[in-house]
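4.2 Preliminary Data

To establish feasibility before requesting continued support, the project team ran the inverse folding procedure on a target of 63 residues. The structure was first converted into the token representation described in Section 3, and no sequence information of any kind was made available to the design step. The complete token record follows.
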């Protein structure tokens, strides 16, 4: 019963959330692009701080 209630709540949340956008597809694309950018930056930070690899300084032509 709890699982069903949680799923219903989640579905209702997304229904209300996306209803405020004129273009729901564009809203989803913006959210996904933001997540991808965040993940990329987090990955770069981990490489830099914990592995010692700086992707920005290893690009050809970048000094």
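Position-by-position output of the design step:
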């Amino acid at each position: 019963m709890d699982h069903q209630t949680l799923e219903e709540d989640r579905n209702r949340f997304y229904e209300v959330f996306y209803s405020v956008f004129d273009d729901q597809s564009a809203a989803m694309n913006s959210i996904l692009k933001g997540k991808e950018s965040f993940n990329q930056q987090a990955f770069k930070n981990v490489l830099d701080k914990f592995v010692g690899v700086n992707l920005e300084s290893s690009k050809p032509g970048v000094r």
